[in-house]
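User: I've been trying to design a sequence by hand for this structure and keep getting stuck. Would you show me what you'd pick, starting by listing the structure so we're on the same page?

Assistant: Good idea, let's start from the same input. This is the structure you sent:
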């Protein structure tokens, strides 16, 4: 993931706040870029947000569903700046999680399988 940061693929977040909200888990994260670092900044209003359920974020991270499908079906929702939303969607489209998450990617796939086996689909 360091390569992504150093290559400037998230530079669109410089001086901007991204809110990631996982509704059914009750989690919210606000992130921004400072230099070549991604940092948490929970005290500021977001410029862009992405919201959805945990299962749908897992589908996105494991590439079982492409971002366009998740957004089109409103399983993941973008809010805020249209321009930042386009940058974020394009970033998500280009992301190769197996490459950046390594062995952790296999654990995410197993978690998705557990969701599916337990019938916790949205």
């Amino acid at each position: 993931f360091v390569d992504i940061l150093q290559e400037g693929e998230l530079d669109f977040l410089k001086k901007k706040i991204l809110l990631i909200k996982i509704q059914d888990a009750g989690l919210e994260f606000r992130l921004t870029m400072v230099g070549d670092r991604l940092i948490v900044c929970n005290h500021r209003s977001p410029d862009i947000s992405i919201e959805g359920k945990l299962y749908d974020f897992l589908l996105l991270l494991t590439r079982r569903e492409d971002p366009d499908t998740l957004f089109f079906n409103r399983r993941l929702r973008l809010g805020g700046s249209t321009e930042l939303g386009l940058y974020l969607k394009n970033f998500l489209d280009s992301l190769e999680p197996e490459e950046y998450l390594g062995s952790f990617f296999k654990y995410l796939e197993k978690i998705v399988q557990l969701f599916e086996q337990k019938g916790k689909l949205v």
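That's my pick for every position. To get oriented when you compare it with your attempt: The longest helix spans residues 104-117. The helical segments are 2-6, 54-62, 67-72, 82-94, 97-101, 104-117.
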